[in-house]
Task: inverse folding
């Protein structure tokens, strides 16, 4: 039996967002509360799996230092209390920034390493939108990342990280690692694996793995909206054979670099008004329109009403706007009650850098309350049903609509604070367009004021050569 401790902190932090991520923004689970996160455990023989603490947050701004310190301290205390361990599995996202700590994962993983010592193997799973660094790779024995974006393989990636760890424990050896930083930083919206060339680059990964000389290979496209030196893509390979492992990482890095000019948004894009015009002119009965600059799932505040303002100004037919995070507007609607008409100042409060409040007059159509998301309101303003939420929370599943009795296909335009559409909406959207709207995660990051990136880096710099 191999005793393995598990846990981690997972958040994606947009450093261009003025919001700070607080302790209350994390969902912290401990011990048996984590069973559903690791449903594969019962099928793995030979391990005593001990989940200690996992903290997961909606993507946001930089994490408040005291919040990070509290989570790190609790995890390390659990790790110390249960020591010694045969191995440690860290369940991370990989794009965490903390006040005063740009490379927060290096700090966290480094602290784990200090505690468990040099002989205890550490394996980590990452989102492919994580940013690795040499400091991180020096502390990890194994790392593997998602292979799909939109993400559909989170559980399978966790299982792979754990099985790789177990494989090393059973073999009684430490694997070789190859880590190649690639001078490329393309957003998730440009690197989806559903379309070319992302599909082919990622489809090449299994061919590089033979299960012996090369045990695993990952490509992390990185997280764009973090102004940090480590923000860039990386190829990683793990294996028993050093030359084969290097060669696999090099092949994957070359494939990604070689395809760099072909990556593009998978859907029509344009200014907010261009996208509204496109939707209005479309034959499709419903058009999903991404308000990409204020995409909550990439860390933006989700309270910029600019696209709503334009939809109202354009007098769109029956449409849906999901949504605006605004606790005071939600409270006012609950006070007024269902059916009431009221005038509200919507949004522009959490992120005043990228939006200003919009005054609307609307009717409270529906009130909702959920333990996870708090109170929500559907407010009808002219022809637009606007979803208001008291807490930041992305519309990432159809259940978000059904719990509010909303069928998105009843509307001509469905505006979502997303970048690419998540799988639930990919499946049903007759047509999708993406507006290059204002916000903390503006869809053309190469136009934003970055200061810490290691240059040159594509597409910020275009005229340079590189070989892995
Ligand atoms: Zn991701």
Result:
């Amino acid at each position: 039996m191999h005793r393995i401790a598990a846990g981690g902190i997972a958040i994606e932090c947009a450093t261009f967002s003025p919001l700070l991520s607080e302790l209350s923004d994390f969902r912290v689970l401990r011990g048996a509360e984590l069973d559903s996160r690791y449903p594969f455990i019962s099928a793995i023989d030979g391990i005593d799996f001990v989940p200690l603490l996992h903290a997961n947050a909606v993507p946001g701004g930089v994490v408040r230092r005291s919040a990070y310190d509290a989570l790190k301290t609790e995890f390390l205390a659990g790790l110390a209390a249960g020591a010694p361990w045969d191995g440690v599995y860290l369940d991370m996202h990989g794009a965490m920034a903390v006040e005063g700590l740009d490379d927060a994962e290096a700090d966290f993983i480094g602290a784990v390493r200090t505690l468990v010592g040099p002989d205890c193997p550490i394996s980590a799973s990452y989102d492919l939108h994580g940013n690795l660094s040499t400091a991180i790779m020096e502390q990890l024995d194994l790392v593997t990342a998602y292979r799909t974006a939109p993400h559909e393989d989170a559980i399978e990636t966790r299982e792979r990280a754990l099985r790789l760890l177990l494989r090393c424990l059973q073999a009684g050896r430490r694997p070789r690692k190859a880590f190649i930083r690639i001078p490329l930083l393309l957003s998730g919206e440009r690197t989806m694996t559903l379309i070319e060339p992302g599909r082919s680059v990622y489809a090449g990964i299994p061919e590089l793995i033979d299960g012996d000389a090369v045990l695993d290979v990952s490509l992390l496209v990185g997280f764009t909206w973090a102004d940090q030196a480590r923000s860039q893509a990386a190829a990683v390979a793990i294996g028993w054979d050093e030359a084969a492992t290097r060669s696999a990482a090099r092949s994957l890095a070359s494939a990604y670099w070689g395809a760099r000019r072909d990556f593009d948004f998978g859907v029509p894009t344009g200014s907010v008004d261009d996208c509204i015009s496109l939707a209005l002119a479309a034959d499709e009965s419903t058009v999903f329109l991404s308000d990409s600059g204020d995409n909550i799932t990439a860390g933006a505040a989700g309270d910029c009403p600019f696209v709503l303002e334009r939809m109202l100004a354009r007098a769109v037919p029956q449409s849906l706007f999901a949504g605006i995070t605004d606790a005071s507007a939600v409270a006012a609607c609950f006070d007024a009650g269902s059916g009431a008409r009221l005038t509200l100042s919507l949004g522009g409060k959490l992120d005043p850098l990228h939006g200003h409040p919009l005054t609307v007059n609307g009717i409270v159509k529906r009130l909702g309350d959920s333990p996870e998301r708090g109170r929500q309101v559907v407010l009808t303003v002219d022809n637009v049903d606007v979803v208001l939420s008291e807490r930041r929370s992305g519309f990432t599943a159809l259940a978000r609509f059904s719990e509010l009795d909303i069928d998105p296909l009843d509307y001509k335009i469905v505006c979502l604070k997303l970048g690419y559409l998540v799988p639930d909406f990919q499946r049903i959207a007759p047509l999708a367009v993406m507006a290059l709207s204002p916000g903390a995660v503006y869809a053309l990051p190469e136009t934003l004021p970055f200061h810490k990136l290691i240059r040159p880096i594509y597409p910020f710099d275009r005229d340079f050569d590189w070989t892995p």
In short: Residues 127, 129, 151 surround zinc ion (CB under 6 Å).
